[in-house]
Each structure stands twice: as structure tokens, then as C-alpha cells.
Design a protein that fits this description.
Elements: H1 11-40
Length: about 55
Amino acid sequence: LLVTIQYQINEVITGLVGVVLIAWSFWSSVRRNKALAEAEGKAPTSDEKAEVSSGV
């Protein structure tokens, strides 16, 4: 938002930045879930659903 004060930024660029951030977050979550599964000594299978703990 601070950049838009001085520069006109195309909506396509801001949309792509959003998509990249969402894709990166998803990829990071998949990597973390795989690392946790390996630490527990079991590999995740396609039949199992990924379990995400809230940390609360």
C-alpha cells in the first residue's frame, strides 16, 4: 500500500503477488507436515488426511 502512494501498480501484479504468497504458504505447510510425519517415524500416505495442529 505504501508503494501505491507514489506509483501506479497494475492489478495483475498485485493479484500475482497474492497467488504467489498463497502458493508459498501451501508449499511450506506441506513441507512441514511431511517433516513432522518423518519425525514421528511414519511416512504420510495418500489415504491419510493431513493433520494440522493449532498449537493452542
